[in-house]
Specification:
The chain is of the alpha/beta class. It has helices at 18-29, 41-55, 69-83, 106-133, 157-175, 193-202, 208-215, 227-238, and strands spanning 9-13, 33-38, 59-63, 88-91, 98-99, 137-144, 155-156, 180-187, 249-252. This is SDR family NAD(P)-dependent oxidoreductase.
């Protein structure tokens, strides 16, 4: 299948590691030019070089904090100044913050909302005019399965992510007339640095496959997901193959979610 990503330009926040990095790698393999954003310049440089070596594509690495509106504006401007255009935005930046309601103070609420919701809002706002110039574009907002059915001790992340789903729906309705598609993916248990540390700290006696099966006992597919399984879905959603898909959210969770 031709995904139609050749010569497209993509901007990916949280692009130095995990799902963001794998998505940048996959989009590059499909012929897109990619700008990756993260706060740690060393991690960005390492990711940039790995993508370049494996795909032969040029990668722009931008150090920024997308919890600040001025930084969101800057990363879009730098991407367009470098590549001359922008077609795709993947709003992936975010951290895991999960506590009970009484344990989250005002500062923690604001920090989480600024990063996950504010970063998505502001980066999208500055990217959209450039997508209009290209006759359309695609935005994918990363959320989590807890955004649909928040459990106890999931704050403030579940609330920020739930707001992100509402934002995705509203944006898709407003931007459809400009041929800009907006979708979300809801991530479940996916292999990450945090999961790797848990494995090494708690069960170093197990192989990864054994640890994955043990940890994923409550997941219908019986294991932890891999980053490429998430990036495959994101790559499809931003591609021409998904040209009639907008305003939806896709669970990437091995069947663990309790809501469609």
């Amino acid at each position: 299948m031709n995904l139609g990503l050749e010569n497209k330009v993509a901007l990916i926040t949280g692009g130095s590691k995990g799902i963001g990095f794998q998505t940048a790698m996959d989009l590059s393999r499909e012929g897109a030019s990619v700008a990756i954003v993260a706060r740690n310049q060393d991690a960005l440089n390492e990711a940039k070089e790995q993508i370049r070596q494996e795909t032969g594509k040029e990668v722009l690495a931008i150090s920024a904090d997308v919890s600040k509106e001025s930084e969101c504006k800057r990363i879009v401007e730098e991407t367009v100044a470098h590549f001359g255009k922008l077609h795709i935005l993947v709003n992936n930046a975010g951290t895991a913050a999960a506590n009970s309601f009484e344990d989250v103070d005002g500062e923690a609420w604001q920090k989480d909302l600024d990063l996950k919701l504010g970063g998505t809002i502001h980066t999208s706002r500055y990217a959209i005019p450039h997508m209009k110039e290209q006759g359309g574009g695609s935005i994918v907002n990363l959320a989590a399965v807890v955004a649909k059915t928040p459990p106890a001790n999931s704050l403030p992340s579940s609330v920020s992510r739930s707001a992100g789903l509402a934002l995705t729906q509203a944006m898709s309705k407003d931007l459809g007339k400009h041929n800009i598609r907006v979708n979300a993916v809801c991530i479940g248990l996916i292999r990450s640095d945090q999961i790797e540390k848990m494995w090494q700290n708690k069960r170093p006696d197990l192989t990864w496959d054994e640890f994955s099966a043990e940890t994923g006992k409550g997941i219908p597919l019986g294991r932890i997901g891999d980053t490429h399984e998430a990036s495959n879905v994101i790559t499809f959603l931003v591609s021409d193959a998904a040209s009639y898909v907008t305003g939806t959210s896709v669970n990437i969770d091995g069947g663990s979610g309790n809501a469609l």
